[in-house]
Amino acid sequence: MLIQVFGPGCVNCLTLEKRVKQTIASLEIDAQYSKIEDFQVIMAYGIMRTPALAINGKVVFQGRVPTVNELKEIINGELDVSSN
Amino acid sequence: MFRKIEEKSLLSRVISNKIIIPILLLPVWFLLYHYLQNITDWIVFDLIGMDKTMHLTGAVSFFIFEVPKVLMLLTLIVFAVGIVRSYFSPERTRKILGGKKLFVGNVLASFLGIVTPFCSCSAIPLFLGFVESGVPLGVTFSFLIAAPMINEVAVVLLFGLFGWKTALLYMSTGLLIAMISGFIIGKLKLEKYVEEWVFNVKVGDNGLEDEKLTFSDRVSMGYDAIKEIVGKVWIYVVLGIAVGAGIHGYVPENFMAGLMGKSSWWSVPIAVILGVPMYSNAAGIIPIVQSLLEKGASLGTVLAFMMSVIGLSLPEAIILKKVLKIQLIIVFVGVVAVGIIIVGYLFNFIY
Predict the structure, then answer these.
(1) Average of pLDDT values for B273-297?
(2) Residue B297: phi, psi to the nearest 5?
């Protein structure tokens, strides 16, 4: 599973990054994590509000910072989809 | 299958609670708001038993009255704005503004700047998205000027503390500055000062904007807005009002009048210049605004200061440096600063 955080590095982006890492650690899943700061790439994903999160290349939300619990749900949800 | 149905009914129960609770709370809100002065008097004079003639009494009752008043107003408006904003998105705004002519575009962009969810860290992706879909540069700037300057927190605080006239004046002059500055920037034909790569950006489609929101989704976005905004700014509101209450009787009334009063013509430009490097949200600036006004600074000067702090910030200019050449940033800051200065003088002249 590939998890990408999109954001140029403002406070919200950093918070999201931290929470995503926490979530990955606590779910004990095998996830590849990367942070994308290049605007051209961010735009290519159609993201106009940062921070955003993509799982396996699919943007799941943008412009907000969910709690760790919500992130768990989102990531688990995507895990279910990909395992089916 | 069965489980799914069960889930759904549980979901609809949660949904209806979400909508019903605010409807029930609304009359409570109005009652509380309406009787706030009476409640305050009762607490101050009957419960604590303070002396009416003392200086401290005035300060305490000011604090006990204003804090809940402003926080209640803030909660209600932020909730409402949160719901309204759920109908708008940068993606949709971009589509509306695409290919719009100057002037009409500037007017539209300024209004959309108020209702489109925006945070200054999204300024770049938003700028890129606007340019890609053919929104003219000047129209984009109208949006970028209006969005941070006219926000619900600033307007509510002005309304709560200084009355609806001040709030309305702030809003309408802020809108005017956004429209006219954007129009001027558009007329100046400054496209050559935008970094080249900006015009090569392609905006992908991630399908997110197609998601259909139910009304209860929007209501919960209103709740999120309360959590997010009121949760963050309440401390500044309390501090600001405490400052206001504290200096009520202790600093001489006309302390600031010489420095920032009407009679000193240079006070407006100085206030604007001071405001540019300062970066604060609307709530953080309120304690300062409160104490300046209280002590005889004139309204125009203080509003100019406030607009400059919120609307023109050095960090935002630095962020924009990634997409704009320095010449354009200077023009942008210059045009907006001049606009704010004019507004400041205008207010000082009227009041």
Answers:
(1) 77
(2) -70, 150
